[in-house]
Design a protein that fits this description.
579 residues; mainly alpha; three-stranded mixed beta sheet; two-stranded antiparallel ribbon; 64% helix; globular; binds zinc ion
Length: 579
């Protein structure tokens, strides 16, 4: 008989299914009684942690050096050969667990999630999922392949970013127009991909016994704490309370910059880019990666001893790769290392304030991983709506320590400016988030009994929705391009309905930040750490409450937040305008 010994297992080839197979077979055969199931769950969980960490490490390597073929081959080998076997083996064990009827309080939510997955599972949806994945890859290829002509040079969508943010308005407009030509060149292709995706998604919902894709998708995403109606009233609350504040900001930009109008090259919501009312040179927080890391250690230690230790631990164990360099993948992320109970942060720092802001954000995710360790791996990953509360709160809680006198990066005035720009960006995100979400609610509940949806109808709906939330941007003669705005958010193609999470989390994070101002930092941080420590063992509203926030998104809640942010923005504007 096999002795379930993971140290022994790790002496074998940990990339090969053959190494794990006997262990899964043993788990599959071991009799489950009330007494034995606890140990069985722990063995399964420990092995899942080991496997997740191997996969994560292999993935991290591919992003650290995209030119290394051995890294890429190894990762693809894991994805293509190990992962499918593992998914099936996991599924079998899940079924066994659910059928055993074994339960106790701390795993109630784990069981609920597993049961939900099992309920929605339909064999006939497996080939549909493969089709969907192919189409979403086509979206990546079509958009990744766009070449933007820039003074004879060919740029891709991310390379044009530098010029879209240029201080010179004429350069921004030129970049925007070049980008527009790139997108319009793939318009028909993207329309066709999306219409195919809609058909497949509707079929999936039907196969699973749902009348529309939206109700299926809400269940698939494990949205137990809120429904479509809550999302629609969140949109309305944003329209009533946040849009006016954003419009006020835009008036200040116009006055400060002597502009007649806000054009899409002044504010580009799909990229989170906007000019500021003040014409100031970009912030320069640090020179070297060491300085960036040391600043982080200082800031988090000032904020909270435990969190400071977590960050220092990451620095000590080479779990921070923050600066951009040739060959590195794009973007930034925080990866959970479940076996070590640690986290890894990947970023593409370029010495800008954006880099610092991203570091504060990703550190919040990392603290969640450090604080949220639990007996079983499935008890650890909190719902995404709350994961972003952990990260977005950190962006605000750490802000008072950005100043050099706390070991941070800026003089007092620049520290104020950094936080001011952050708050403005946060406000400007919400109307765009509402546009993306409201559009999809309409798309996936459209009654096709009178005729199928067409690209023209999608365009018209997007335009109407943008005018509702982002009407202040003047597109001039480029309305035809505005209509296709839904092409430019990959979530709409690849992860339907996944976006409102960021809006909800922001409302949660704003409340956490408010608590730190009203009730003091210590109490707020204790609640923050307690909530992070629950992992996924509490429901979404319970996690919000533990962090000191209410899980609601109505006019009353949002107007309270709007007033607070407005007051803080005015205060910070005062600080940066002082001589
Ligand atoms: Zn995040």
């Amino acid at each position: 008989m096999l002795n379930f010994d993971l140290e022994e297992l790790q002496k074998g080839d940990t990339d090969s299914w053959d190494t794990y197979k006997p262990y899964f077979e043993e788990l599959n055969k071991r009799p489950l009684t009330d007494e034995s199931t606890k140990a069985w769950l722990k063995d399964w969980s420990d092995m899942s942690r080991l496997l997740e960490e191997i996969g994560t490490q292999a993935y991290i390597n591919t992003t650290l050096d995209t030119t290394n073929e051995a890294y890429r081959d190894r990762y693809m080998q894991l994805v293509e050969n190990l992962q499918p076997k593992l998914t099936q083996a996991d599924q079998d064990l899940k079924v066994r667990l659910l059928e055993s009827g074994y339960a106790y309080d701390e795993i109630a939510l784990v069981l609920r999630n597993m049961r939900n997955e099992a309920d929605l599972f339909r064999e006939e949806n497996i080939p549909i999922n493969t089709e969907v994945t192919k189409l979403t890859n086509q979206y990546d290829q079509a958009t990744g392949g766009i070449e933007i002509d820039w003074d004879g040079e060919k740029l891709n969508m991310s390379q044009i970013s530098v010029y879209l943010q240029d201080e010179d308005r004429a350069v921004r407009e030129k970049a925007w127009r070049a980008m527009k030509d790139g997108w319009m060149g793939v318009r028909d292709e993207l329309n066709s991909i999306y219409l195919k995706l809609l058909k497949l998604r509707k079929q999936k919902a039907k196969n699973a016994g749902f009348s529309d894709y939206r109700s299926f998708r809400f269940r698939e995403m494990g949205r137990f704490a809120y429904g479509p109606a809550d999302c629609l009233s969140f949109h309305e609350a944003i329209e009533k309370t946040i849009v006016p504040i954003v419009n006020e900001q835009l008036e200040k930009i116009k006055a400060g910059r002597q502009l007649d109008d806000i054009r899409p090259w002044d504010w580009l919501p799909e990229r989170g880019m906007s000019i500021q009312a003040e014409e100031l040179p970009p912030l320069k927080p640090y020179q070297t990666e060491d300085e960036l890391i040391q600043g982080g250690v200082n800031i988090f230690s000032q904020l909270d001893e435990t969190l400071g230790r977590h960050f220092a631990d990451m620095a000590e164990h080479s779990l921070l790769d923050l600066e951009s360099r040739a060959g590195k993948a794009m973007g930034g992320y925080c990866a959970r290392m479940p076996q070590q109970g640690k986290a890894f942060i990947f970023m593409n720092g370029i010495g800008s304030h954006d880099t610092v802001q991203t570091l504060l954000h990703e550190a919040g995710h990392a603290f969640h991983d450090y604080e949220g360790t639990q007996p079983l791996t499935w008890q650890e990953s909190a719902p995404l709506e709350f994961c972003e509360v952990a990260s977005m709160s950190m962006e605000k809680l750490a802000a008072p320590y950005l100043s050099k006198k706390f070991g941070g990066y800026y003089n007092d005035k620049d520290a104020a400016r950094a936080f001011l720009e952050h708050l403005r960006t946060e406000m400007m995100f919400l109307p765009y988030m509402a546009t993306v979400d409201a559009f999809q609610h309409w798309v996936y509940t459209y009654d096709e009994s009178e005729g199928e949806l067409t690209a023209d109808m999608l365009d018209a709906k997007w335009l109407e929705t943008e005018e509702r939330f982002l009407g202040a941007i003047n597109y001039g003669d480029d309305v035809e391009f505005r209509k296709t705005g839904w092409h430019r958010k990959l979530h709409i193609f690849q992860i339907p309905f996944y976006y409102i999470e960021y809006g909800m989390a922001q409302v949660g994070a704003m409340q956490v930040w408010r608590n730190s101002m009203n009730n003091g930092e210590d109490q707020t941080l204790e609640a923050y750490k307690t909530a992070l420590g629950y992992g996924s063992t509490k429901t979404l509203p319970e996690l919000f409450n533990a962090a000191g926030a209410e899980f609601r998104f109505d006019v009353d809640m949002l107007s309270g937040i709007a007033k607070m942010v407005q007051a803080k923005i005015a205060e910070l504007e005062e600080v940066i305008s002082e001589d």
